[in-house]
Amino acid sequence: MNSTSAPEPAQPTERIPAAERREQILAAASRVFGERGYSGATTDQVARVAGISQPYVVRMFGTKENLFLEVLARALDRLVTSFRQIIQEPREAGPAATELLASRLGAAYVDLIEDRGILLSLMQAFISGHNPVIGAKARAGFLEIYRMLRDEAGFPPDTIREFLADGMLFNTLLAIRLPDIFHEDPAAAELMRCTFRGKLDVVLDATAAESTDADAAPAPPAAGHVDAAKDDK
Amino acid sequence: MNSTSAPEPAQPTERIPAAERREQILAAASRVFGERGYSGATTDQVARVAGISQPYVVRMFGTKENLFLEVLARALDRLVTSFRQIIQEPREAGPAATELLASRLGAAYVDLIEDRGILLSLMQAFISGHNPVIGAKARAGFLEIYRMLRDEAGFPPDTIREFLADGMLFNTLLAIRLPDIFHEDPAAAELMRCTFRGKLDVVLDATAAESTDADAAPAPPAAGHVDAAKDDK
DNA sequence: GTCTATATAGGGATAGAC
DNA sequence: GTCTATCCCTATATAGAC
């Protein structure tokens, strides 16, 4: 309380290579943007989750919009990479081949969006059609997936439509956190069973381990405790 | 420039009953929240679209969150009402009855979300699972629809799933403004045709008439012009 | 590579006049 | 019923030290 001065230099953050720090920030930003939305998230929250100072975040990415764009690109990239890899795996021919591939891709998709950062960054982008920059990226990304399914996976249009529709339902159910009330509401359980089928357990498991803590203290050194615990609104 | 004083009382807005004004504000808020998101929207933008002053908006709804909640409730209400009405219409029995009803409900849904305010208010709510108040409303609303389809429409689980999945795909394609590039991108056209089918024309038509103008001048009296035209970022 | 300090703007909400 | 004025907090971004 009355120490002569020394404004607590806040743990002199470890000095690590920029590239690595970049990754940390992107990971943190993905989670924070996911929880609070593009406008709702603050660079300060991102900084806290990443364990560094707010100005450093801005320093590294120039602007908040820029940061979001990188987060979005990263999410799309993971999605595309994951899909392409599965498509290129050797697969048996036969009538059920398409169906089997679709189900593999679906499973991979669920695994991906288990990461709320990825899920919600994508959804954030979807509802930003109004924003010229973000909106354009969202459209381009969506169509890239469409073309991949058509040209690389060889899906017929209706299969693509069904696949995408299922994906959007996955998105929504996870976004509204239906798994949270799986045990309280029978209707929720029914809908989830019928939607996620074999993947139900994965979805339910992931429900436990989470919480972003964009508020509260800085993160990195497993410090004892800090005063903080500011807003949460 | 050098008028003695008189800070331009800004058209002395017409004095109308509170209930009516309420509706105006809700309509305006629906559009603004839809375009900018919950956090991205400002009460001032809502006020401008409604043609009144910012403090009055706050006055009437207490807080911004409250205003959003009312917008959301209004959207859900319209949805529920519209569906219920269709379900209760007399319908022929027979094997194709379920399918026919589903297609009618689907068409009604597209009509509803043609209103970007409604569409995006719903989607905003979906991605606010994190917010205890809004998130809870979103879950409750979604499950209400589910139960209605199950208990009132008598749909089997898989039909419900497909129906909801299609709906979520509608949402997404409209949210990212795919109709905007219908003529520029063949893949976009393909996907939209196959998704919206008979409703394609409706979706494409509505694409023209829009733009919120939350920025720029006040609205109501067809005034000559005003300076304004502020941000737009 | 990372921080502290701070300029500066924006936005929600309140007070009180008309 | 509606506005003007305005308080005050929050958030992005910049400057510059270490």
UniProtKB/TrEMBL annotation, chains A, B:
<protein>
    <submittedName>
        <fullName>TetR/AcrR family transcriptional regulator</fullName>
    </submittedName>
</protein>
<dbReference type="InterPro" id="IPR001647">
    <property type="entry name" value="HTH_TetR"/>
</dbReference>
<feature type="region of interest" description="Disordered">
    <location>
        <begin position="211"/>
        <end position="233"/>
    </location>
</feature>
<keyword id="KW-0805">Transcription regulation</keyword>
<feature type="compositionally biased region" description="Low complexity">
    <location>
        <begin position="211"/>
        <end position="226"/>
    </location>
</feature>
<dbReference type="GO" id="GO:0003677">
    <property type="term" value="F:DNA binding"/>
</dbReference>
<feature type="domain" description="HTH tetR-type">
    <location>
        <begin position="19"/>
        <end position="79"/>
    </location>
</feature>
<keyword id="KW-0238">DNA-binding</keyword>
<dbReference type="Pfam" id="PF00440">
    <property type="entry name" value="TetR_N"/>
</dbReference>
<feature type="DNA-binding region" description="H-T-H motif">
    <location>
        <begin position="42"/>
        <end position="61"/>
    </location>
</feature>
<keyword id="KW-0804">Transcription</keyword>
<dbReference type="InterPro" id="IPR009057">
    <property type="entry name" value="Homeodomain-like_sf"/>
</dbReference>
